[in-house]
Amino acid sequence: MSFHADIGGTRYVFSDLRDLLAKASPNRSGDRLAGLAAESDEERVAARFALADLPLTHFLNETLVPYEADEVTRLITDTHDGQAFAPIGTLTVGAFRDWLLSDAADQDALKAVAAGITPEMAAAVSKLMRNQDLIAVAKKCRVVTRFRNTMGLEGRLAVRLQPNHPTDDEKGIVASILDGLMYGCGDAVIGINPATDSPAQTAKLLHILAEIIERHHIPTQSCVLAHVTTTLDVIKQGAPVDLVFQSIAGTEAANESFGVSLSLLKEAQRAAVDLKRGTVGKNVMYFETGQGSALSADAHYGCDQQTIEARAYGVARAFDPLLTNTVVGFIGPEYLYDGKEILRAGLEDHFCGKLLGVPMGCDVCYTNHADADQDDMDTLLTALGVAGCNFVMGVPGADDIMLNYQSTSFHDALYLRSVLGLKPAPEFETWLAQMNILDAKGRVRPQLADGSGAAALVAPDAVR
Amino acid sequence: MTERPADPWSAFRRFTQARIALGRSGDGLPTPHVLDFQLAHAQARDAVLGRMDVAVLRAQLKDTDLADHPIVTVTSRAENRSAFLQRPDLGRQLSESDGDTLRAAHTSKPPDVVFVIGDGLSALAIESYAIEVFSDAMKQMPDLSVGPLVMAQQARVALGDEIAVALNAQAVIILIGERPGLSAADSLGAYLTYRPRIGSQNADRNCISNIRNGGLYPREAAARINYLLRAAIKQGQSGFRLKDLSENELLTSEDP
User: Fold this and answer.
1) What's A150's domain CATH number?
2) What is the mean pLDDT of residues B21-45?
3) CA R_g for chain B
């Protein structure tokens, strides 16, 4: 079915739903690379006028990626909750935006409707929203998850401690972990990207992490971000696996390029739940996503990158993840060219995920060939803090020496918690206080007098 | 500004190059560390945006034993840096006129190998190490016929395939600037493809990365290139099918 909008004397025609969504999408390099972007700014807004008039029910009748060919489409279609959809079932995409911003769409109403929203509906409405809309609505969505602590509560911001090392050197990793803990970071997860993805290496790193968490009684979880099949291997060998990590995308073919399928993810989720290592909850999955991954695998089916990204959150929510992280600026300037495009994408991803009921965090990041810098990251980080982002990354000095990109630092996390009055996950906050890492006002000001927990944590022989 | 505030656990710095124990100004980063970071990023950006100066490379080559080695300069279809960064597909294709130039340069006997020097994501890496690697590698290949040295602007790795096809070369080795990190902006990569064709994939290539002083030294890199090339010729293939290789020579990273 085609769509059109008349602007002045010009009729803009959009050949199908994919074309309409792509042309309505804010301008970005990945959609231009794919040849899907609007030809002019006027055409882009014309597409938005046409999209605003489209009933949400249309998304239940026209698929973007064929049902028969794609298990992600089947997942989205087969698990759509018609009852949850009913309150918004008569709305157009434009009216849906108005409703999301209205007082009627409070925390409870948004939670109730989440299962009735498809990823494509979330992507569509985001294209009609300004950055402030994406922030305002996401702030009203709360997604709370639990493993050894509680993530996503109002007024809280968690941090993934990312202690990567180019050769997985044990002492180097431990030094970075202790540094991060002394900065109050690590409640989301202590998660290592291994330099070598092998079962032996993964098991070794998992034992290092488990030993630190157990020795200091830290209410947090560990993860080695190896391929899901590697993690399944080491679970069978008895390694201490808290969370299962996997990169995912929004089509079956893109997931295939990552070497995963929905059934494999389900198998991994079951295996990790069965280990019963969580103390306060059973959310065992850690997903990473990012706009552009489907296009880079030539598995985007002519869809714009933001819509396909929203479908990845449709995959995520089927597995009750503890954490879902959009690694927004990692992919490079051929997909998100500069700080403006990265900012927009980060806010879209966070909004779409939260609207669908996914516990979103964001790796606020960039590479050296993107036209972006620390100032751009400060802007996105602050905006995400205001929007109620569940977690961000903590990398020593914002410089990941293994993956060679710039993320956010422990200092950045302190800044964000401080200016917005945000606290760590409650269980972790209690631990930080017990360790004398927090002062009486709850600020990170470690007291290193003899006998304090903080002093023991960084004792001269602590790195072994 | 000589003062470098630090945290009491700064002794841990000896265990890692990561930026740990930096100290705090309130919740923020102390001034010297803010500026250190900005300097590293500025150097990386300058390397990405810098233009490969062919005159400099020619002058460097004159100072080697290869002063008379023929040189051809080409550009990809990416017109400028901005197009290069946003359209990787254009950086993998020769501009039309350069394709003709190369076909005209091709000799009656197909060369065993052609070397390409491409700017990639760091012109600094090229100007620092490419000629040294090329001349060291050439010393180890007196028995092989080597085509003209092709200097390619706005080049991605796969541009070497089209160049090799135009020159009818059996193998191509492209020396290319890697994406700069904060710790090094001058890393050079070398990619070998045997029997390259338009549309060769990463799995068809072997890669040697992090070539720089402080990483893999240019002389060692040249020896690895020679070893890989001879293995590829002997086995009639390159990429992940090439046997008896250590893990780091299989191409796992994304090409620049």
Assistant:
1) 3.20.20.70
2) 96
3) 20
Identify which of A296, A357, A356, A287 has the alpha carbon closest to the alpha carbon of residue A324. Answer: A287
CB contact residues (below 8 A), chain A span 196-215, against chain B:
196
User: Mean pLDDT across the stretch A108-112?
Assistant: 98
- Run of H or E including A74: helix A71-78
Looking at every residue in chain A, the average pLDDT score rounds to 97
How far apart (Å, rounded) are the C-alpha atoms in residues A451 and A27?
56
Which amino acid makes up residue B130? A
Q: Does A420 touch chain B (CB under 8 A)?
A: no
Give the 3-state secondary structure of B230-249.
Answer: HHHHHHCCCHHHCCCCCHHH
* pLDDT over threshold 50, residue A208: yes
A340 bridge partner residues: none
- Domain coverage including residue A291: 145-434
Chain A CB contacts of B87 below 8 Å: 33, 334
Confidence of residue B254 (pLDDT cuts 50, 70, 90): very low
Tell me the average pLDDT across A83-108: 98
Q: Are residues A259 and A291 in the same domain?
A: yes
Tell if the CB–CB gap between B37 and A32 is shorter than 8 Å.
Answer: no
Give mean pLDDT, residues B141-148.
96
Tokens of B73: 């300069």
Residues A174, B15: C-beta atoms closer than 8 Å: yes
End-to-end CA gap in chain B:
37
Q: Name, in order, each residue with C-beta under 8 angstroms of A58's C-beta and a sequence gap of 6 or more.
A: A17
What pLDDT does residue A23 have? 98
Q: Do B19 and A404 touch (CB under 8 A)?
A: no
Query: Which candidate from B9, B19, B247 shows the least CB-CB separation from A397?
Result: B19
Statement to judge: residues A344 and A304 lie in one domain: yes
pLDDT digits (tens, 9 = 90+) for A224-240: 999 999 999 999 999 99
Identify which of B9, B17, B183 has the shortest CB distance to residue A178.
B9
Nearest-CA distance A412 → chain B (Å): 7
CATH dotted code for B52-249: 3.40.50.11240
Q: Please enumerate residues of B whose Cβ is less than 8 A from a Cβ of A.
A: 7-9, 11-13, 15-22, 24, 26-29, 33, 37-38, 40-41, 44-45, 47-48, 85-89, 121, 179-183, 185, 247
Which of B9, B38, B86 has its CB closest to that of A337?
B86
pLDDT of residue B244: 54
Give CA separation, A108 vs A12, A129, A141, A353, B231, in Å: 39, 21, 8, 17, 65
Has residue B248 got a pLDDT over 60?
no
Question: Using a CB-CB distance cutoff of 8 angstroms, which residues of chain A are in contact with residue B77?
Answer: none
Q: What's residue B101's pLDDT?
A: 86
Q: Which residues from chain B sit within 8 angstroms of residue A443, using beta carbons? A: 27
Structure confidence at residue B253 (pLDDT) = 45
Domain boundaries, chain B: 52-249
Count other C-beta atoms under 10 Å from residue A8's C-beta: 7
A441 Cβ contact partners less than 8 Å away, ≥ 6 residues apart: none
Percent of chain A whose pLDDT exceeds 70: 100
pLDDT, tens digit (0-9, with 9 covering 90-100), for A168-197: 999 999 999 999 999 999 999 999 999 888
Does A429 lie in the same domain as A397?
yes
B29/A368 Cβ within 8 A:
no
Assess whether pLDDT exceeds 50 at residue B252.
no
Residue B138 CB partners (closer than 8 Å, separation 6+): B65, B66, B69, B146
From chain B, the residues in CB contact with A330 under 8 A are none
List of chain B residues whose C-beta atoms are within 8 Å of the C-beta of residue A176: 16, 18, 20
Tell whether A315 and A417 lie within a shared domain: yes
> Using CB atoms, which residue from A171, A411, A460 is nearest to B15?
A171
Mean pLDDT of chain B: 91
- The pTM score is 0.93
